[in-house]
Write a structure and sequence with these properties.
CATH class of chain C: Mainly Alpha
Number of helices of chain B: 9
Shape of chain C: flat
Structural class of chain C: mainly alpha
Oligomer: heterotrimer
Number of domains of chain C: 1
Largest sheet of chain B: 6 strands, mixed
Low-confidence stretches of chain B: 1-28
Low-confidence stretches of chain C: none
Helix content of chain B: 25-40%
Chains: A mainly alpha, B alpha/beta, C mainly alpha
Number of strands of chain B: 10
Largest sheet of chain C: none
Largest interface: A-C, 46 and 46 residues
Order of helices and strands of chain B: EEEHEEHEHHHEHEHEEHH
Strand content of chain B: 15-25%
Mean pLDDT of chain B: 85
CATH architecture of chain C: Orthogonal Bundle
Mean pLDDT of chain C: 86
Distance between the termini of chain B: 31 Å
């Protein structure tokens, strides 16, 4: 069974460092690509959800419910194994993984964006319309810029979730961190070491990204006036009163 | 102060009435700049405004007073169609505006939407909660209407914007963001923003109610200044002394209806019990 | 492209096994949730303790277990721990523990958030009347905090339910496992996975809907006084 094991076989991990780091790179790449795609999709769906056209609203609602209700694991095997058989299409695994991650996260993000847009005080919209700005201009110049600041933290959190969820892509064979850790753990018979290392790497990635989000949050709630003075706001919610 | 009552000349064209089109092209030569006719508004099952009729001549200053919930703010929002009236019409500069919404015809809805900016840019509105855009500097706040609605070039717009901010006494704050401004200053930005578009009518919705007491008189002075240069205005306010000083006409509203309307003298000596009750509770 | 003949018969034929699998999924998620509540409560208490060290440790633990993917934790427990320290976990146990730990980190935040959301003034008023600190917490703060905590807790549970789908990878015979197994025999993955997906979606949506109703019921007639 197990040979006399040291508490932690650093050597085994160190020898596999290139493989693991490559996997880490693929994981981060997939998560990032997926979240960017998810943001684009999510924004579109959010706007549809707020549209006056009933068909758009219903579609967007169903979309959101679907992708928030389905577990990622189920979705991915459905896409990669189920759909591929049914439609007789062979999607390569990395794009398939990224697409699935994107679809899933777009569901959550569309809700986030919708709340963000609705959180902009109604008076802003009134003032914009009162000036005579078209509905589109009000959205573009008044509402969305303010909503943007509001949604940065939750979007950042979604990115963090995407990084964690990328581990599930290993199921369909994507050579990301978890898969590589699995592989090395099996080959070198050191599951504890490799899964611990994988955990540490994910932890570092998450903490790092969270710090970035924190900085982004602070940056966008500080308004720097052109004469050089800057003021700190103490909350990310942009209020206009007093 | 008022325009001389000319002989009314009615010229009626009934230009093409497309189905459901909001614009009925009946040009009436009339001495009213703005008319509110049979306007009602319902929110849910609550009737906020019932059959309001009001006519304003050019250069007139009308102050609307009344208890909270009487529909004063809603009336203002009906006039510039931010909250279109459910019944009735608004006649402004000879054009009639009615609420329009087709359930199915998206194109007609779009055409209707496209017409509204021209109405709104000729009517300026200042809000109780200022509603200055926090992500833009004071100058940018003033300029955006000019650029997007009047289609001016940015440089021309900036010139006008600077001038307007100067007129409200904020020449040194043009590049400041609203958070750095006091309530009174924010409200001035809002006033400058509305005036920049050169409106024919100004609507003021309780514009001093959110201000600290020491800043209120500054804003009231601005309104006085505008009245002095002949701006047509509808001012909803709780500042009774101010209203009675500045208004040509006072309108008392309660529960969605106009109870009484008249000159400050007439209102002060009114026999109408509800008006009396309201005034005595305010003018301690 | 061949037209695919969609047929539900494969589902009908194997419905009993699929249902059994679903039950296992529910079981493991519920057991996980119980552990999560316990663990979360512990962490939350530590987080709110007066001792700096207690707060720091719990903060660290929460951060760690919110950053590590459930999948990795699961393998770490089932393969890593058991091999290294000779502990024998069954696949079900490993799954439940992994869910419990991850869920616990989230529940800790839910508990803390719920308690923090109650205006400090409530506690002050309670103390001013003469209640002891613990009674004040029990009778005044907790009932109000529960209103906030319960819907969030249900959300965490929905998350666990979705996460529980992973356990099929280590061999737990949940619904996904059954679906995979059957699809290998009958070559009908599309129908099976669609079925699995639909079941999960209805499940999570109904629970989420229930949480929403619950939240409304709990806030009925009580504004923030």
């Amino acid at each position: 069974m197990s040979d006399s094991q040291p508490i932690f076989d650093y050597q085994a991990v160190w020898d596999s460092r290139v493989i693991l780091l490559k996997g880490f790179g693929i994981a981060m790449f997939s998560a990032t690509a997926a979240i960017i795609l998810a943001i684009i999709l999510g924004l579109g769906i959010a706007l549809m959800r707020l549209s006056r056209i009933k068909a758009f609203r219903s579609f967007a609602f169903l979309y959101t419910q679907l992708f928030r209700g389905v577990p990622l694991y189920v979705l991915i095997i459905w896409v990669y194994f189920g759909l591929a058989i049914a439609v007789d299409v062979n999607i390569p695994m990395i794009p398939a993984g990224i697409l699935t991650l994107a679809l899933l996260n777009s569901g959550y993000l569309s809700e986030t964006f919708r709340s963000g847009i609705l959180a902009v005080p109604n008076g802003q919209r009134e003032a914009g319309e009162g000036l005579g700005l078209s509905k589109r201009d009000v959205m573009r110049f008044v509402v969305l810029p303010q909503a943007f600041r509001i949604v940065i933290p939750p979007t950042g959190n979604q990115y963090v979730d995407a990084i964690k969820d990328s581990s599930i892509l290993s199921i369909i064979g994507v050579p990301e961190l978890m898969r590589m850790a699995q592989q090395q753990a099996n080959v070198l018979y050191r599951p504890f070491e490799f899964y611990t290392t994988a955990g540490i790497l994910y932890f570092i990635a998450v903490i790092f990204v969270s710090k970035l989000i924190g900085i982004a949050e602070k940056r966008t709630s500080t308004f720097v006036s052109k004469d050089g003075n800057s003021i700190e706001k103490n909350s990310a919610v942009v209020g206009v009163i007093h | 102060m008022f325009a001389e009552r000319t002989n009314k000349v009615r010229v009626n064209f009934d230009l093409h009435r497309e189905s459901g089109d909001l614009i009925s092209m009946s040009m009436t030569e009339n001495d009213y700049l703005l008319e509110v006719k049979n306007v009602s508004k319902i929110f849910g099952d609550h009737r906020v405004l019932s059959d309001i009729n009001l006519s304003i001549t050019k250069g007139e200053v009308v102050c609307i007073i009344g208890p909270s919930g009487s529909g004063k703010s809603t009336l203002l929002r009906c006039i510039n169609f931010i909250a279109p009236p459910d019944t009735g019409e608004i006649i402004f500069e000879g054009r009639t505006w009615r609420k329009f919404h087709s359930k199915y015809n998206i194109f007609a809805n779009n055409r209707y939407e496209k017409g509204l900016p021209s109405l709104r840019s000729d009517i300026g509105m200042v809000f109780q909660h200022f509603n200055v855009f926090p992500h833009m500097t004071a100058l940018e706040n003033v300029v955006i209407g000019l650029v997007r609605v009047r289609k001016m070039s940015k440089s021309a717009a900036r010139e006008i914007g600077c001038k307007q901010l100067q007129l409200v006494g904020l020449a040194d704050k043009i590049n400041q963001y609203p958070e750095k401004l006091s309530g009174g200053q924010k409200q001035r930005v809002a006033i400058a923003r509305a005036l920049a578009l050169n409106p024919k009518v100004m609507l003021f919705d309780e514009v001093t109610s959110s201000l600290d007491p020491e800043l209120v008189s500054g804003i009231l002075d601005e309104i006085r200044r505008l009245a002095g240069v002949g701006m047509t205005m509808i001012v909803v306010t709780h500042e009774m002394n101010f209203a009675f000083q500045v208004a040509h006409r006072i309108v008392f509203m309660d529960q969605g209806k106009i109870v009484e309307s008249g000159t400050p003298e007439q209102i002060k000596n009114t026999k109408e019990p509800r008006t009396q009750a309201f005034l005595s509770s305010i003018l301690t | 492209m061949n037209t695919y003949q969609f047929s539900w018969t494969v589902i009908q034929n194997h419905l009993p096994e699929l249902i059994d699998g679903l039950i296992i999924t529910l079981e493991i998620s519920l057991v996980g949730m119980i552990w999560a509540i316990a663990f979360g409560l512990l962490l939350a208490m530590m987080r709110l303790s007066q001792y700096r060290i207690s707060r720091s440790i719990s903060y660290g633990v929460i951060q760690v277990f919110r950053s590590i993917p459930l999948f990795v934790l699961l393998f770490w427990i089932y393969y890593g721990l058991s091999l290294k320290f000779n502990i024998k976990f069954s696949d079900f146990q490993a799954g439940a523990i992994a869910l419990g730990i991850t869920g616990g980190a989230y529940m800790a935040e839910v508990f803390r958030g719920g308690l923090n959301a109650i205006d400090a003034g409530q506690q002050e008023a309670a103390l001013a009347i003469g209640l002891t600190r613990s009674t004040a917490t029990r009778l005044i703060v907790l009932p109000q905090a529960i209103r906030i905590i319960i819907p969030q807790a249900v959300n965490v549970y929905v998350g666990l339910l979705k996460g529980a789908t992973i356990v099929s990878v280590i061999g737990v015979a949940d619904m996904i496992y059954v679906a995979q197994y059957v699809s290998l025999q009958e070559f009908r993955p599309f129908e099976l996975y669609t079925f699995a997906g639909m079941v999960f979606i209805s499940l999570t949506l109904s629970i989420a809907g229930f949480a929403w109703l619950l939240e409304r019921k709990l806030s009925e007639g009580r504004s923030n006084v």
